[in-house]
Design brief:
By secondary structure, the chain is of the alpha+beta class. It has four domains: about 230 residues, PAS domain (Beta-Lactamase); about 90 residues, Beta-Lactamase (2-Layer Sandwich), CATH 3.30.450; about 180 residues, 2-Layer Sandwich (Heat Shock Protein 90), CATH 3.30.565.10; about 100 residues, Rossmann fold (3-Layer(aba) Sandwich), CATH 3.40.50. It is about 50% helix and about 25% strand. The protein has 18 helices and 23 strands. The strands form four sheets. Strands 12, 13, 14, 15, 16, 17 and 18 form a seven-stranded mixed sheet that branches. A hairpin with a 4-residue loop joins strand 10 and strand 11. Helix 9 packs across helix 13. The longest helix has about 80 residues. The two termini are about 50 Å apart. It binds adenosine-5'-diphosphate. The site of adenosine-5'-diphosphate has 21 residues, from helix 11 and helix 13.
Length: about 675
């Protein structure tokens, strides 16, 4: 549906925009999450750096503690050289112990200068100290008391080249690197297991920026960490003061190691976002789809209303078409009938006969189209009446036998004489079905015969199955064409049937009409040999007496037809015919001429009402559709008049309205009867 697509298009565009915004927000969000993650990791790292620094501080403290114990031992036995010598056993590889006087001269071990190690001064003032001298090493010093005075300072020196071996710091399970620097940024403890590359990286350009910021952070807090992008990837640098030393710890660790754990938060957030986005896309897709559906449902509803309106318009059109077309055709056929009755001149009669044939073909064509439309729109109703089957057969034979014989075909009728004389059903529709089948049999047969069989099958006392079959020796139907036989407007075997007139409606009408009467058309056909069409219809029996030989009736009627004469004359009767079409009045008056009935005509309802006031009529025939006052209105007016001699006279409506329910409507309007100008088969 184009309208639906047109409406769907902007909705789709809006949704595409939404998706783009979603992607944009996604990108923004991911970078924001990344920043948050860095902040989070920096905080974590800063705390971890503090912990590492505390551990380093503990190592130094342990060293000082062991020095204090040794100083204690010496203090109690300063003159016992064995105790002193035992106390001077170094605690780490390459470390050296010594005892110095206040001027720095050694009592035991080597001299150490107060100038090199500022901590010595403090120790002479009574404190354990750690001091560093570039090139000389790391010195731990502790006072040795002599009563309240300090007599010596005990020291332990770790030479520069041994510091790494004894004090290097392991962090992040070996994945990170950390060192200890003095307040003057001298390297005290180098990286553990570090390569030249690591050192160059740490002290090089790449991290210097981050370090600069890190150091200013340290002015505000005791530890800090920062993220930076480098050519080696993302790295965190961290630093923390080492308590009680005046030194600080610094190091770096790569992004992956540092953000372990936090990474999963990012992927979690990412996944959640992705799922929400996915849900949104699915949701909006669903909305587009359903809104399309809702819209197409709206459209369908609208289309249904339009179709219903169109169907109503079609019915109205058909009603007026049946009137507008059939009225002039009836007039033509009526005039033609008068020519045939009144003139003997052969050429004129031939022309008149041609007009009759063409007129009848036209009428049957219109009737087919009307019937089909009526069935399709559900407006065809069955009108069951009591009827004589022998007359139906007679009508059919009288219509079809001459046509068949004209083609050189033998037309054979096999009718069961025991069929009950009076049946109850829609004889017009039954006759129409048989007529359609017979017409085809004659149409599609070039040589041979057409056999019509009418039988009965007993059901119960008051019902029979009326069984009809028509067999021809015609062109037959291919098995593959049998299905299409009942498709409206479709003709089968077109190449062969090219020259045979037809609309492709006949069989569809028969099928549908039989279905209305709970029956079904059976077809048996052999291509090139002939076909047999049959059906059986349940009918009520109204008179059990056998119908007898229909042919006697037939011959009798044929003889009557050869010389047409009126069945009655009524010179004392008077009728009034009202019709706005003058030709119709002429035809009616002409056809009734020999009955000697006194006929008055009026061209309008107004004119007719004037006539009724002056003269009493036996019957009034009134046309339904007239300009100004219509037939129904005129009847109402007539019935309401007092003093009018025709107020209660029988009025019969004249109409070409073939729409079902018309008769009932007219009777309800007050007419005595209804005379339809043309209903095939003639009622
Ligand atoms: P049409 O107006 O073309 O006759 P119908 O609906 O009456 O339309 O028939 C449909 C088609 O069935 C015909 O065009 C014809 O090909 C085929 N058909 C109907 N009756 C016969 C038959 N007795 N013999 C052969 N073909 C037939």
């Amino acid at each position: 549906m184009r309208i639906v697509n047109n409406i769907k298009a902007p909705r789709t565009a809006v949704n595409v925009c939404f998706i783009i915004v979603l992607i944009f927000v996604g990108i923004l969000m991911s970078s924001r999450v990344q920043v948050l993650l860095h902040r989070f990791t920096e905080g974590q790292l800063s705390r971890q750096a503090q912990t590492i620094a505390e551990k380093a501080s503990q190592v130094f403290e342990t060293e000082l503690k062991s020095l204090s114990q040794k100083a204690g031992a010496i203090e109690h036995n300063p003159e016992d050289s064995s105790v002193v010598m035992h106390s001077l056993q170094p605690s780490g590889a390459g470390m050296r112990l010594g005892l110095v006087r206040i001027d720095g001269t050694a009592v035991y071990g080597g001299d150490v200068s107060v100038l090199d190690f500022a901590g010595l001064q403090s120790s002479f003032r009574g404190r354990g100290m750690i001091s560093f001298s570039a090139g000389k090493g790391l010195l731990f010093s502790y006072p040795v008391f002599n009563g309240p005075n300090i007599k010596y300072v005990l020291y332990e020196l770790c030479p520069t080249d041994k510091i790494g071996e004894n004090f290097s710091i392991s962090c992040f399970e070996g994945m990170g690197r950390a060192l200890v620097l003095s307040a003057a940024d001298e390297l005290i403890v180098p990286f553990e297991n570090s390569t030249e590359e690591d050192r160059a990286f740490f002290f090089g350009e790449e991290l210097s920026d981050a370090f600069g910021k890190l150091l200013s952070d340290l002015e505000l807090s005791s530890s800090a960490a920062r993220y930076t992008d480098t050519t080696r990837g993302g790295y965190y640098v961290f630093a923390s003061e080492i308590p009680d030393t005046g030194f600080y710890l610094a190091g770096f660790v790569d992004y992956e190691t540092a953000s372990k754990g936090a990474d999963s938060i990012v992927s979690l957030v990412g996944t959640v976002y992705l799922m929400i986005s996915l849900l949104f896309v699915i949701g909006s897709g669903y909305l587009i789809f359903t809104s399309g559906m809702i819209h197409s449902n709206d459209e369908l509803l609208k289309a249904k209303l339009v179709a219903e309106e169109a169907s109503r318009a079609k019915s109205d059109f058909l009603a007026s078409m049946s009137h507008e077309i059939r009225t002039p055709i009836n007039a033509i056929l009526g005039m033609d009938e008068m020519i045939l009755r009144e003139y003997d001149e052969p050429a004129l009669r031939q022309y008149a006969l041609n007009i009759r044939n063409a007129g009848n073909t036209l009428l049957s064509l219109i009737n087919d189209i009307l019937d089909f439309s009526k069935i399709e729109s559900g407006k065809m109703e069955l009108i069951p009446v009591e009827y004589e089957m022998s007359l139906v057969i007679y009508d059919l034979v009288s219509m079809m036998k001459p046509r068949a014989e004209k083609k050189g075909l033998s037309f054979i009728v096999r009718a069961d004489e025991n069929i009950p004389r009076v049946l109850y059903g829609d004889n017009i529709r039954i006759k129409q079905c048989i007529l359609n089948i017979l017409t085809n049999a004659v149409k599609y047969t070039e040589t041979g015969s057409v056999v019509m069989k009418v039988d009965q099958e007993y059901i119960d006392e008051s019902h029979i199955y009326l069984k009809v079959s028509v067999k021809d020796t015609g062109i037959g139907i291919k098995p593959e064409d049998l299905e299409r036989l009942f498709s409206p407007f479709e003709r089968v075997d077109e190449t062969r049937n090219r020259n045979i007139e037809g609309t492709g409606l006949g069989m569809s009408i028969v099928k549908r009409m039989l279905a209305m009467m709970d029956s079904k058309l059976e077809v048996q056909s052999e291509y090139g040999k002939g076909s047999e069409f049959s059906f059986s219809i349940r009918q009520e029996v109204r008179s059990k007496a056998p119908m007898g030989d229909y042919e006697k009736n037939f011959i009798h009627n044929m003889q009557e037809q050869l010389s047409y004469h009126e069945q009655f004359t009524a010179p004392e009767a008077h009728i009034l015919i009202v019709d706005d079409i003058e030709m119709n009045l002429t035809v009616a008056a002409g056809l009734l001429k020999n009955t000697e009935i006194g006929i008055d005509t009026a061209l309008s309802a107004k004119n007719a009402l004037e006539l009724t006031e002056k003269k009493e009529y036996d019957v009034l025939f009134i046309d339904d559709r007239m300009p100004g006052m219509g037939g129904v209105e005129m009847l109402r007016e007539l019935r309401s008049q007092t003093g009018n001699p025709n107020t209660a006279k029988p009025c019969i409506v004249l109409t070409a309205n073939a729409i079902s329910g018309a008769k009932e409507k007219y009777i309800k309007d007050g007419f005595e009867d209804y005379l339809q100008a043309h209903r095939r088969g003639g009622a």
